């Protein structure tokens, strides 16, 4: 049998096209082997078509060689696998260039080979299919036609035959826009002419002119442009954002010169003698070799209805590396901190801006924003917009970043490539996870285990998944619990029935791990030690506070447990108490709290211990500065604090409560330092203070170091600030007494940087 389908395929494919795009050298999508020449062997691949889809009579018809026959209607005639079977596909137009076989963009299958998208061919509108067997006509209806090819070459050949234009290359692009169809709307959402598109490059079999096609999905029509209609120079090319802009030559359609140019129906044909002289010679598109004499007929929908065409290339993780903007989001219990970085894969990110809303549990919430070294917003009250809510705080920050003209790296949401989110409880996850709408619910299941954090962080994640186009922005979850995966079994196990423990995943997880990871690396560097030889006791003291024993650079123990409630007291958390306390506290503590939601189930007891305890309960404030400020005035009452009969005035009473809180916090911290000192066999390189309080409160450091002085720790003789002050840009500084081991250090921990660094190094994020 002579495969008649070959009659239409006149040329061999020589694709020198888009693969050498200068605008995106590392990102070139070159799915077509430039040496590829179709042979009958390559095309003998079968394709399949489903009839009666989703009905009990559904049947898959295996199709062999094809032939395009006739006119009015032009038909694609398929031989089927059984003798006497024929499938006729009636083509909706006799004009080949009006046919637009449709394949997906690689984004629709992010991790597959982008070439594979060509295996699935469909059309945007129903076509008539007649299926005949020996018994007669089995099917004759308009259906959604979906071919599934076994080889990419087979699909390309069919597409070429249908269009009488050889499909020579394609790119996956995020958005195609023009002067009349902007890339984004006024909210920054990507609109464009077409989004998430596979642009295809065709060469007409007769004229050899080159065309590009894509589906303008916002207007639901196909666009076809003749490449010669665009300037040869690439205008406004923007390597960093992987954008090119092609300026149209001459006037737009509708102008006098153009309407007389002989383009039937405004088609994009190149029938003008003048255009035949031109060569499309930018290196982005292949040079047309002009053997032909005329236009093969243009699509009715084509034509230059624009002044320029802008194209933004996709960031397909399987084919691209490059630089990107990273937003690192740290939703703490009392604050939301967002840092902005530019980053290249595998390189340390470069910070360009940081913003935070603090005071979420101690209103009014305050916005601070710094771009580089410049303070753009100092202390703006944003309580009205935020109302104690983390996701509202994030929205305020995002708005601030986007509206800042001095931050050109983020003009629109689409400029953000990666958003890393600090997720406190990561269950058994031991590495960061890309989050999609589909995987989001895995994280939701952990909400109950970190009631002050996970639900809030996930609120922000949801906001980002919904608001940032998935084609431009990846969301990555970085877990606080991840660093503690190395805690040995005898330390992480609770002494309870192990079957129940396993079933319900009850064990010590530990948190602040992103911070401890940063602290470990920074301290090792500061001390000039190898990380795997570093032993430290680290204290992350913020609204949530914890201690960790780090042995050989890895987590050995930490004070938080199954949830962040265990261990040290925090702003609103009790820290460890006798577990029976809850039953004595009040009678209804086992009931669900009114604060419970559909997604978050929190009992009264959990709510009391997580949200109504800690300094808030003891001192009436969640701001530790307020507590340390009144210390000196409470000195007297500290000395008499057994004298209950004292008729103290209100101020003194408050000061005494602050003193009690401070002493209690110091006591609990020292308890962990002592325990970890023993646990590390006294081989400790340094005691490291970090977190909002650990970094900034001299009073707290002094009190702690004084109490643990018996273990050899001692502060600098001066004021405990490291010899009277420290370099403001320092990450780690020494506040210990000269010549004394172990050292006492302060580390300005940076959870946002740690997340951005992890993501920049992780191939999967790119
Ligand atoms: N100079 C200071 N002295 C004492 N406490 C401070 C100082 N500066 C900030 N803090 C406290 O640090 C805490 C916030 O720490 P941080 O680590 O930023 O919190 P979060 O838990 O929200 O991440 C607040 O309780 C704040 O009062
Ligand atoms: C785990 C935890 O308590 O985090 P934060 O200190 O940021 O609230
Ligand atoms: Mg924090």
TrEMBL record:
Q: Where is the composition biased (Acidic residues)?
A: 642-652
EC number(s) on file = 2.7.2.1
- So, what pathway does this thing act in? Metabolic intermediate biosynthesis; acetyl-CoA biosynthesis; acetyl-CoA from acetate: step 1/2
Which residues are recorded as binding Mg(2+)? 330, 751
What is the top EC class of this enzyme, as a single word? transferase
User: Which GO biological process entries does UniProt record here?
Assistant: acetate metabolic process; acetyl-CoA biosynthetic process
Q: Where is this site: Transition state stabilizer?
A: 512, 573
Query: Looking at the record's lineage, which domain of life comes first?
Result: Eukaryota
Q: Where is this region: Disordered?
A: 241-299, 630-653
Cofactor(s) needed by this chain:
Mg(2+)
| Alphabetized PANTHER family for the sequence | ACETATE KINASE, ACETATE KINASE-RELATED
* Name of the protein in question: Probable acetate kinase
């Amino acid at each position: 049998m002579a495969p008649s389908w070959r009659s239409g395929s006149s040329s061999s494919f020589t694709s020198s096209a888009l693969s050498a795009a200068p605008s995106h050298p590392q990102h070139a999508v070159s799915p077509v082997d430039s040496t590829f020449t179709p042979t009958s062997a390559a095309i003998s691949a079968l394709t399949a078509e489903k009839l009666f889809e989703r009905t009990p009579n559904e049947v898959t018809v295996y199709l062999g060689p094809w032939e395009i026959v006739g006119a009015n209607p032009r038909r694609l005639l398929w031989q089927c696998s059984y003798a006497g079977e024929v499938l006729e596909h009636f083509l909706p137009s006799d004009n080949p260039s009006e046919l637009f076989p449709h394949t997906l963009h690689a984004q629709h299958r992010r991790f597959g080979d982008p070439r594979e998208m060509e295996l699935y061919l469909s059309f945007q509108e129903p076509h008539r299919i007649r299926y005949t067997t020996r018994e007669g006509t089995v099917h004759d209806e308009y259906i959604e036609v979906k071919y599934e090819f076994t080889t990419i070459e087979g699909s390309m050949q069919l597409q070429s035959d249908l269009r009488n234009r050889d499909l020579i290359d394609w790119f996956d692009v995020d958005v195609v826009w023009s002067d009349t169809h902007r890339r984004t709307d006024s909210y920054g959402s990507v609109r464009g002419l077409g989004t998430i598109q596979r642009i295809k490059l065709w060469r007409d079999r007769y004229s050899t002119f080159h065309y590009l096609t894509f589906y303008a999905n916002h207007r639901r029509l196909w666009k076809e442009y003749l490449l010669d209609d665009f300037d040869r120079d690439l205008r406004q090319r923007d390597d960093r954002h992987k954008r090119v802009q092609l300026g149209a030559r001459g006037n737009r359609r509708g102008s006098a010169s153009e309407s007389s140019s002989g383009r039937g129906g405004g088609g994009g044909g190149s029938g003008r003698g003048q255009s035949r002289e031109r060569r499309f010679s930018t290196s982005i598109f292949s040079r047309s070799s002009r053997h032909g004499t005329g236009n093969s007929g243009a699509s009715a929908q084509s034509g230059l209805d624009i002044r320029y065409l802008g194209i933004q290339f996709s960031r397909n993780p399987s084919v691209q590396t490059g630089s990107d903007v990273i937003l690192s989001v740290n939703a703490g219990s009392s604050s939301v901190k967002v840092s902005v970085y530019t980053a290249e894969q595998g390189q340390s990110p470069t910070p360009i801006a940081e913003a935070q809303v603090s005071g979420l549990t101690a209103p009014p919430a305050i916005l601070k924003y710094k771009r580089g070294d410049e303070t753009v917003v100092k202390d703006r009250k944003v309580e009205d917009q935020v109302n104690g809510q983390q996701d509202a705080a994030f929205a305020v920050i995002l708005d601030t970043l986007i509206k800042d003209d001095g931050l050109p790296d983020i003009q629109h949401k689409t400029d953000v490539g990666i958003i890393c989110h600090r997720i406190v409880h990561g269950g058994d996850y031991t590495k960061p996870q890309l989050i999609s709408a589909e995987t989001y619910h895995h994280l939701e299941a952990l909400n109950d285990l970190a009631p002050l954090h996970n639900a809030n962080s996930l609120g922000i994640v949801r906001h980002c998944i919904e608001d940032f186009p998935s084609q431009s922005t990846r969301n990555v979850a970085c877990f606080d619990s991840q660093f503690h995966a190395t805690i040995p079994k005898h330390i992480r196990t609770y002494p309870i029935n192990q079957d129940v423990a396993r079933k319900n995943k009850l064990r010590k997880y530990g948190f602040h791990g992103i911070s401890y990871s940063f602290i470990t690396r920074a301290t090792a560097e500061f001390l000039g030690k190898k990380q795997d030889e570093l032993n430290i006791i680290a204290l992350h003291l913020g609204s949530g506070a914890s201690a960790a024993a780090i042995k050989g650079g890895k987590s050995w123990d930490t004070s938080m447990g199954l949830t962040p409630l265990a261990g040290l007291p925090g702003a609103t958390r009790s820290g460890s108490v006798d577990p029976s306390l809850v039953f004595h506290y009040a009678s209804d503590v086992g009931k669900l709290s009114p604060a419970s939601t559909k997604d978050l189930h929190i009992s009264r007891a959990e709510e009391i211990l997580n949200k109504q305890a800690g300094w808030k309960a003891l001192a009436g404030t969640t701001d530790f500065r307020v507590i340390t400020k009144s210390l000196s005035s409470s000195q007297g009452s500290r000395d008499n604090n057994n004298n209950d009969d004292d008729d103290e005035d209100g101020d003194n009473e408050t000061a005494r409560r602050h003193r009690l809180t401070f002493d209690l916090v110091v006591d609990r911290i020292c308890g962990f330092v002592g325990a970890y000192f023993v646990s590390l066999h006294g081989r400790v390189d340094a005691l490291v203070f970090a977190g909002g309080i650990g970094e900034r409160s001299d009073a707290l450091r002094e009190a702690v170091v004084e109490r643990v002085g018996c273990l050899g720790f001692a502060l600098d003789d001066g004021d405990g600030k490291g010899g009277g002050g420290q370099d403001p840009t320092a990450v780690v500084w020494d506040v210990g007494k000269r010549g004394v081991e172990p050292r006492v250090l302060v580390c300005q921990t940076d959870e946002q940087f740690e997340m951005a660094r992890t993501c920049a190094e992780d191939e999967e994020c790119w």
